[in-house]
Amino acid sequence: MTYAQVVSQVHKLTFEMLGYAQSADWEKLLEVEQQRAEWLEKMRLCRPENDSENEIGKKLAETIEANYLIETLGNIEKNNCLNNLKQSKISKKAAQEYARY
Fold it and tell me: Where in the sequence is the domain holding 71, given as residue range(s)?
């Protein structure tokens, strides 16, 4: 398999992950992330070909940008979960206080 083919597969899987992140399907995202990790390892072990540098560079740039968006969406979701947990604890504490009266 050529380096360009490996990069294309990483690119494809990254955008698949982005779709799952945008729809908040974190379980599917994690499944695809495991597949992508295997391809990233293949990419690390491959040698790039000189004849396709522009296309590879473009795909790598797009992949990096999509990965940044995935991380951003993941951080937003994490913060939402933390806020919900805090709110739940506050509500529980308030309910306990009201129950005492």
Answer: 3-100
At 18-51, the pLDDT tens digits run: 999 999 999 999 999 999 999 999 998 887 777 6
Give the CATH number, domain containing residue 50.
1.20.58.380
Say what the alpha-carbon torsion angle 73, 79, 82, 88 is, to the nearest 10 degrees. -90
- Number of structural domains (the chain) is 1
Summarize pLDDT for 66-90 with one digit per residue, the tens: 999 999 999 999 999 999 888 888 8
Nearest-angstrom CA–CA distance, 54 and 44: 18
**Radius of gyration of the chain from Cα atoms?**
21
Alpha-carbon distance of 62 to 21, in angstroms, equals: 16
CA pair distance 20, 54, nearest whole angstrom: 28
Contact 10, 40 (CB under 8 A): yes
